Amino acid sequence: MSPKHTSGFTLAELLICLAILGEIATFTLPKVLQSQQDERKRSMSKEVAGILSDALLQYRIRVGITPGTSLDYDLFQYINYVKWDTASQIDYYPLFSGPLSCSVAAPCIKLHNGGILKSGGASWYDTNTTSAIGFTFDPDGAYTASNDSVNFNVYIDGAVRSRQYLKSNTTYPGPTVRGPQAGGDPSWFTW
Question: Which residue stretches of 130-169 are H helix?
Answer without folding.
Answer: none
